[in-house]
Amino acid sequence: MKSRLSCLALLGALLTSPFACATTPPPNIVVMLYDNLGYGELGVYGGGVLRGAETPRIDQLAAEGVRLTNFNVEAQCTPSRSALMTGRFSIRSGTYKVPRVGSPDGLTLWEVTLAELLSEKGYATGIWGKWHLGSSEARFPTNQGFDEWYGVPRTYDEVMWSNADESNGVLPSIGSKQGWDEKLVPAQYIYEARKGEAARKVKKLDLASKRTLDEEITERATAFIKRNAEAGKPFLAYIPFSLVHMPTLPNPAFVGKTGNGSWADALAEVDHRAGQILDALKAAGVEQNTLVILASDNGGEATHPWEGANGPWRGTYFTAMEASLRAPFIMRWPGHVPAGRVSNEIVHIVDLYPTLAHVGGAEVPSDRAVDGVDQMDFLTGKQQNSNREGFPAYVADRLSAIKWRNWKLQLIQQDNMYDPAVPLAIPRLYNLLTDLREENNVMLENTWALPRMMGIAGQLKASFAKYPPIESGAPDPYVPPH
């Protein structure tokens, strides 16, 4: 009897899996997340040669899959990465802003990451690059579902500490007395770690090590792909590259490659590294059974001389302007995602969590608020419309805007990350189809749209009563209040 029940249970699990055929192995998943790659950088998004470097490998990837023109992220690096890993708006997880050095930071271990979901389904999991979701070892990625990691805990601004008192042509000389002193603030490091083992400091994070980091990330990611393909083990390869985060400097092998300056050389490297990952999948014989996503975590850089290009959109990241929220997104999955498809339907980065969990045969947690919606039927072309019509846009802990269909309601005005955030006495409404730069307030003639838009904010607020947000810096162990 126990044998018969076990067989029935197995049959039921297979029938509910998206890959019920026993001959079809679970698909591999590769997520290439570029850092602050603006909407207007890639050739297929109107950049490429206009930015000084063609991007043929990424453009071809777009031709082989679906490209979104209304893929939305959160306003800062940490919030976007938190949303990707948990499927929850970062305001819920206490990860709604980039942490400052010395302050408590990161995801509580109570959160269930995408890596944890897929690991439970037999996936090998690896991350190479910036984590930015916990700078204490207890919260490193290898304690959050990943089998291996090579990268940095926080951000790349810190490469400039050790160069601030040097005249190197990249950063201004301010003198050693006024500059950074390792005795006061320790140097930051690139780490290597494996699940169940202590993390190891590999080398200091500085300008030289950042220049070669994407090369090292690619080498380790491609080795992981080859190793698991040979073993016949499904894998999640999460590859958060360092480019084009400031200081935007290319690998020495790419210096002068385009003749159009450091930014163009870095863009050429962006395309090359993506091509190396794609080549590794093909060489390993798993290209046809691998879902590949290429996206950015934020809009383009805002700081001179590394400003990014955001296409037709106005503003910078760290705001709720479209230049902050809209980012490139390309997805290829041979035999599942129709080639050459372009859509302006709204998708949010939180949606990747339930969508990729679906792909891997996992279920999202039911004991907490999960904001992401499964977009697999939309992305595979089974339906034309997204399963999402809008979302609330937070900048840090401020509800700054609401998007619904092609409308944008600005509650706080802030065009540039260096501008003050000014609450608006009367919100401003923009039609994003006729006013890409958010310059013409059409509130008075379109007040009919407000109930739906304010309803999005109301639903989120109501959910806070049932699932209170985690405070920023909350320690482990975290237990949600009843």
TrEMBL record:
InterPro entries: Alkaline_phosphatase_core_sf, Sulfatase, Sulfatase_N. Belongs to the sulfatase family. Residues 27-361 form the Sulfatase N-terminal domain. Pfam families: Sulfatase. The lineage of its organism: Bacteria, Pseudomonadati, Pseudomonadota, Gammaproteobacteria, Pseudomonadales. Coiled coil: none annotated. The keyword Calcium applies. This is Arylsulfatase. It comes from the Bacteria. Its cofactor is Ca(2+). Keywords: Calcium, Hydrolase, Metal-binding, Signal. Residues 1-22 form the signal peptide.
